[in-house]
Amino acid sequence: LKFVQNLFFRDRELSPFIQKYDYLLHEFSDLIGGEYLIDNENEEIRFIPNNENLELSMMESSSSIRSLCDLGIYLKFFAEEGDLIIIDEPELNLHPENQRKLARLFAKLINCGLKILITTHSDYIIKELSILCILNSREEILPNVNKISNVKYELNSLLDLNRINVFLSKDTNNYVKLYTCEINNIDGIVLPTFDDTIQDINSIMDEIAFSSEI
Questions:
Q1: Alpha-carbon distance 37 to 132, whole Å?
Q2: pTM for this structure?
Q3: Axis-axis angle for helices 123-137, 192-210 (nearest 10)
């Protein structure tokens, strides 16, 4: 409630963080395919899609636009270096490709001085963060990192694996315990529960595809 009140009842200017790293606002706009507009008269946030002459209310916007609204407004008007952002399952309602873009944006925010804590069930986010850690540790390919695949990775999105921590939660005897996950320069983030499940699915698909008895 306080966040919303501050939004409509104050003289707004770009946050100190965005004033220093204004390119991040463009990256976020690319992620959502537009920008958020604060409608003071009606005290609401609206969405303006790129290259379209219309404004959409949050009710008219997609679920992904609604779910990223708080993050977008926070970055634009409130963020300061050293802040801690806590996001529960940021992958909700996002296409897998946008989940990967969001992971790269998180990495850039971290490298620019924000702290980020997320909970996630997204293998796409975990795998993308793993790629960023692995690339950062491969000095021989850093000069050509933007030529890898069609993503065109940027140096400011790469992650020092010593700067991140990953924990896996498990229910044990009616308690939730956190286990530290290994992060290395070969596999990136090692998450057996994700990897085992994906491998199991792939094995089933192979069995179906190559078995003449099914």
A1: 32
A2: 0.86
A3: 110
